[in-house]
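Page 47, continued from p. 46.
Same chain as before, 344 aa.
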Amino acid sequence: MIHTITGILLLVFLVVYFQDRRKVSNGFFLSLFLLSLYFSFAYEALTTRPPVIFWLFIVITILGILFLLFGGFSLMVFFFINARILFKKEGFRLRNSLTLAVGLGILLLFIFSLFPIQEFIPEQLSFLFTFSIFCIQYISFFFIEFFISSMLYQVYFPKYDKDFIVVLGSGLINGDQVPPLLQSRINKALFFYRKQIDKADKRAKIIFSGGQGPNETISEAEAMAKFALTQELPQADMIIENQSVNTEENMRFSKQKMEELAADDYQVVYVTNSFHLLRAGMYAKRAGLKAQGIGSKTAFYFWPNAFIREFIAYMVLFHKVHLIVLSIVFVFLLSVALLLQLVN
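Result:
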């Protein structure tokens, strides 16, 4: 029976994943399948006991126990170390402090767990403690699923049949200079552009998408185009979209450019940094753009902080749904607390 359930969950995951790779629910269904697969291993290991499966089950179980015991502490230490490296390389800024903030949050949870806090809370307000625990678990759950879904989204091998390559912009330095992070996006797009010419003898148009920020003397799109010229990209294969101010507008305005030049059946891929891929895909879907993304490399020390920022942006993107769920739970716990007070 357990093997049947595992097979069904695998099928469900594959159907959902290939239907739309840009959903966070993909991580949830993969998690369900992996959990069911573990129980399948456990069943075989404890009944028929084939050596390979038995020892694989033992190793996985030990690793799982170690993660439950030390995973939170290890994550806290990792975030503190990452914050130190990030401050050293990028400077102390508020936007670079997310890993430090999360590390401190985990540390505070460890400290609070050492004291019987619930005993000091009036009985009438004890539901607030339960609600706080639920909120922490809720956010942690979505963080894990967002992480898994983001990793899944990295697995993409696009066909060399693209008509357009959209490069998403980011901030400039010194008002008009392309920073290394944005250079990596351009270089990734150029690599795909040239590989497609070699493999399929097809030239794509590269759309540089990004408007002008408050501290920038030119638009991000123009700065990217100038950099691409130094990398020997023909000007005839460049398109500049210089009106967008965020990722959603990147997708929407780039789509307008493409529709001015091609029929509805054009093929497109977008390029951004790997940590930004999944959320960019969500915005592409909102804009009605049938496109998947390829990610450029990001320095590892920069990735955790940037990914946390992406997760926060994802939660804000669907804030209405999350607020509804949390409100329902809050009202339920409050109702139970009031009912218990009436009964007592």
